[in-house]
Amino acid sequence: MACKQRILHIFILSVSLISCSAAACAAVMSMSLYFKKINVNVNEFGNYLPHHYAVKQMYDTGIRDQYERQMSAVFSMISLLEGEYRSRMIVNNELQENKTIEFSEQAFSAIIKKLCTTNKQNPVCKSLNPFTLEGISISQLIKLIQAFPSTLGGSLFPKSTCPFLDSTSKDPYQCNATLNYASNPIKFTIKNLKWSDEIHGIKELLYSSMKPILFTMPQLLAEYYIPCDDPRANETLECAAKTFDCPYNPTKKCGILQFPSHTLSGEYFIPNEPVGVAVGTPINFEIVGYSDWFVPTRGRMSLKQMKMSQGGFIAKGPDRDIGFPITVFTGDLKKSSAHGLCPNARASHFWYGPLRSCMKKGPDVVECSAMDNDDEYDTEKSFESADVLQCIDMNYCKEGARYSILHMPSRTYDTMVYEDKESGMTKTPMILLKKESVEDVVYDHVPFYLLGNIFDKMGADEADRSCGYWFIPYDVIEKVKSVTKDGEVLGFSFDVDFDKSSLLSKIPDGQFKRQLKITNAPNRVISRLFKKHN
């Protein structure tokens, strides 16, 4: 039986700059892309896609700890271009399979800023006022690259040319190095752009291209409705205006506290009532695979507010301390086996606190096992000591103070976490560790799943570069689509052509080659899946 053919869309960009009235420009900027749309048959896989898939390892350049900026369109694009270049050099025997290179997102950002400074009437540049690359979408970035091919097509400089600056810098888009894109030996162009806003279509884009694709959607947020007479809601806009009625008690006014709807092990989830759902600014990912079977495991977080999902996309994350290797999501590496590589020290559901029976012996939690030594069932599993947590955000805890969480008084190793029946905000029993004593506290300023942003697990092991991959469930994407406009949730694939002069053997500039700093690539478990489909 012939496979059902699905229709996706391909856009062809008109690269000529246009002049327009203010109203017309606003209309252009509101579009996800200024392209002519035509229909084409992308592939013949139809509904017969494999249930899980991941791209070849030669596209994997590892995670670089660049935190929230890695979720910008520019940083995601550079990550994809690195993988494209690496794979091309491996195929051409220019680079060993266990080696990789790094391009500078910082240099690319600086060139775009300079470009938009001198081309302020370009619709994309006009929309970036005040200038912030965190506000640019993938579609806008592709438009810029094709509108200015000689400039941005020559903007892949070595990482060492222009080191990374985080978003707290005075000007995070600057580069002190001289960037001569006209003489840059690496040249690239983008062509054959395809997109889809459907789950199946995005899977087809990934599987038919057999290389990473780009994905964008607004950040999914969890909303907690806190009464205005509660100090936690004092500074909210809703309480300042006293205009928002509490959903669970219309006679009261509430403020809204919003938090990202993902755990610090890199797994998105849909909030359940009484927690509300909202969306924030666009986030962007490089998609490297998918699994229809993977179920995000929330560890010891049995929270009603977190909807259980199954199936989703594997995405390259912004921080190797959050997430797992690709092969965990494809089922080729057990999550328990991955903890040695990826301790996920910021994920609170992986923290171990002392049992109350141990704390009766004294205030030094470091001397406490995370399990009751008198328990006859813990002979095969034990921990050297409970985890000590240090406050790193003075806005939410006593800066520098040490804490620990508590386990349930049972053999299940469940963390003691409760949920407020009205707001859904979690309440986590903790211990404030003092010099001569301990103090019981109930922490309810931040949801339990985000405690790793407030407390630092002391003595945590560093994660391997193969870690840091996130999981975006299909139902999360559908939920975001249901509360946003068309065109805000999109997957993109395209071909990248590198000029012949871009080959390592063709680059005459010895200093440029030295700056590329060819380094070891992250390891990955090669699975039966890869052997079958790659």
Automatic annotation (TrEMBL):
<feature type="signal peptide">
    <location>
        <begin position="1"/>
        <end position="22"/>
    </location>
</feature>
<protein>
    <submittedName>
        <fullName>Uncharacterized protein</fullName>
    </submittedName>
</protein>
<keyword id="KW-0732">Signal</keyword>
